[in-house]
Amino acid sequence: MPYNTASNSERTKITLRYHLFSFLVEGEKVVTYPTVTARIVPGQFLLLPAGNCLMSEKLAGPTHAYQSMLLFFSNEALTAFFQKHPDLGMGVGTERVAPPFHVFEADEFLTNFVRSLSLLASSGAELTASIQQLKLEELLLYVSRQQPGALHALLASASETAENQRIRAVMAADLPVHITVEDLAFLCHTSLSTFKRRFARLYGTPPNKWLTRQRLAMAAQLLRQGTLKTSDIYDQVGYENVSSFIQSFKQAYGITPKQFQMQQTS
Fold first, then answer.
1. Do residues 113 and 223 share a domain?
2. What do you get for the CA distance between the two ends of the chain, in Å?
3. Which of 207, 171, 182 is nearest to 11 (CA)?
4. Which CATH number does the domain housing residue 16 bear?
5. Sheet holding 2-5: strands in order across?
6. pTM for this entry
7. pLDDT in tens, 210-221
8. For the CA atoms of the chain, what is the radius of gyration?
9. What is the span of the domain harbouring residue 167?
10. Positive or negative, the Cα torsion across 136, 137, 141, 144?
11. How far apart are CA 263 and CA 128, in angstroms?
12. Tell me: the pLDDT tens digits for 105-125?
């Protein structure tokens, strides 16, 4: 199905009920999953597992638009695919990657595949279940030969992981600097209160303090380089304004960012 929008969105909370192939035609997309964040540009496509993610979409390109083609499929459909093609099944030693978040570069096959979906969607004819199944199988066969581990990992991810493992995976990921505790709770599939309680039990500190510590450590590293001013750094490490950054930094290090930088570079 085609998906177009005329407005930008920032870190929208998305719950995918099904696995998803997302083909980006025009614009930019940033997706944050529990253990990975990726920026996607036209000519790339995504394989996303069912679950929670944060998604940002930006208008770009010659027409200043956002256009994509989406193809949803269930875990039952993926299981049926492997049952139909047992030669593609998971062999001994096959790597399982969790979560199965994959970015693909579009080649001639994928370009033509997206074009065929666009033609079917614009023809006005009904897309019967058999046609949809045929197109999905065509794509799964292609992916299974290009990156077989992607589909194997997707199938393996259907079983729920332990909550503590999920939280540890999220916190070990390369997260956006402006991410909030509410965002983290959402990515961990928990309520805010449950996330705070489990996080504190795992790390011995509240999640907001953990985030502050990480941001200030990043700020200290940038200040040691001696090339950036405080006004250049605060946004890069997730603060909304300079004054709150200076106050937070002084509470942690006992001196202002400028004084810290002078000490480190003298």
1. no
2. 59
3. 182
4. 2.60.120.280
5. 2-5, 66-73, 19-26, 44-48, 102-105
6. 0.61
7. 999 989 999 999
8. 22
9. 163-204
10. positive
11. 69
12. 888 998 899 888 888 878 777
